[in-house]
TrEMBL record:
This is Probable branched-chain-amino-acid aminotransferase. Pfam families: Aminotran_4. Keywords: Amino-acid biosynthesis, Aminotransferase, Branched-chain amino acid biosynthesis, Pyridoxal phosphate, Transferase. GO terms for molecular function: branched-chain-amino-acid transaminase activity.
Length: 281
């Protein structure tokens, strides 16, 4: 892992206990897919990183090309062919005090990478996943990819304990916002793809954005609007998107099967074709 200027073995890779990421979850992160040893859609991830940092007024600790070099180096040193690379930037190390530290305190930078089991991921996708619904209880700025993920941790654990893979947050108006670590999609019986518009109420997923661009080429229709769990259960297909899962079919919501309970045709096609539209570096 890369930790503030040094490459370290994972077991020695640690941060100071007064790091504001540790004390206050005062930091942001990105996760990119690695495929064939290359990083997928890195420029878009770095663009979102800049958004998260600027919304929290954390300085960019180095130029983006330098961050990119470090991320590639960590992938190379870990010999990851298929997996993920993780980047975290926090407001740095300072004596514990809620207000920002002096401007001279440099942000902390951590990068790690690990392999994922490709066959296992493909097998999960072949069967499709179950989701549960869960009351939206996050702050109103989830467009910022902050490391403050306690509500997401609890939602994911609730899903696991219910024998499901993901939790879909449902807002006070009864509409799905997104998953605890993914964006939520449905496909209507007319073949229209529906996903919520990227406002402050969801994280603007990179996989979501790449897929939206791809839909035009694939001559599929998109509606960016909220949908209810009821509409999702009655939909023709459903899926989630995230960098570590790409397009993952959803076959059951709150114990109710979607259509015939197997991954949908369009969903499978989107999963197969996604990387034609991705940028590798
Ligand atoms: N929403 C949330 C809350 C997430 O944590 C993630 C994945 N980090 C996503 C959506 C999907 O984003 P991306 O496609 O950029 O991985």
């Amino acid at each position: 892992a890369y930790v503030n200027g040094c490459y370290k073995n994972m077991r020695d890779a640690s941060v100071n206990i007064e790091d504001r990421g540790f004390q206050f979850a005062d930091g942001v992160y990105e996760v990119c897919e690695i495929r064939g040893g290359r990083i997928v859609d890195l420029p878009r991830h770095l663009g979102r990183l800049q958004h998260s940092l600027s919304e929290l007024r954390i300085a960019l600790p180095m130029a983006l090309p330098a961050l990119s070099v470090i991320m590639h180096e960590v992938v190379r040193r870990n010999r990851v062919n298929y997996g993920i690379v993780y980047l975290q930037i926090t407001r740095g190390v300072a004596r514990r005090d809620h207000g920002f530290p002096a401007a001279s305190v440099p942000p902390s930078v951590v990068v790690s990478a690990r392999s994922l089991n490709f066959a296992k991921n493909q097998n999960t996708a072949a069967h499709g996943i179950k989701v549960i619904t869960y009351p939206e209880n996050r702050w109103p700025r989830v467009d910022i990819k902050s490391v403050a993920l306690l509500p997401n941790v609890l939602a994911k654990q609730a899903a696991r304990e219910a024998g499901a893979y993901e939790a879909w947050y449902v807002d006070v108006d009864g509409f799905v916002t997104e998953g605890s670590s993914s964006n939520a999609w449905i496909i209507t019986h007319d073949g229209v793809l529906v996903t919520r518009a990227a406002t402050d109420a969801i994280l603007s997923g990179i996989t979501r954005a790449v897929l939206i661009d791809a839909l035009a080429t694939m001559q599929l229709t998109l509606e960016q609007r909220p949908f209810t769990p009821q509409e999702a259960i009655q939909a023709a297909e459903a899926f989630v998107t995230a960098s570590s899962q790409i397009v993952m079919p959803v076959v059951m919501i709150d114990g109710k099967a979607i259509a015939d309970g197997i991954p949908g045709r369009i969903t499978r096609k989107l999963r197969e074709e996604f990387h034609r539209f991705a940028l590798f570096s």
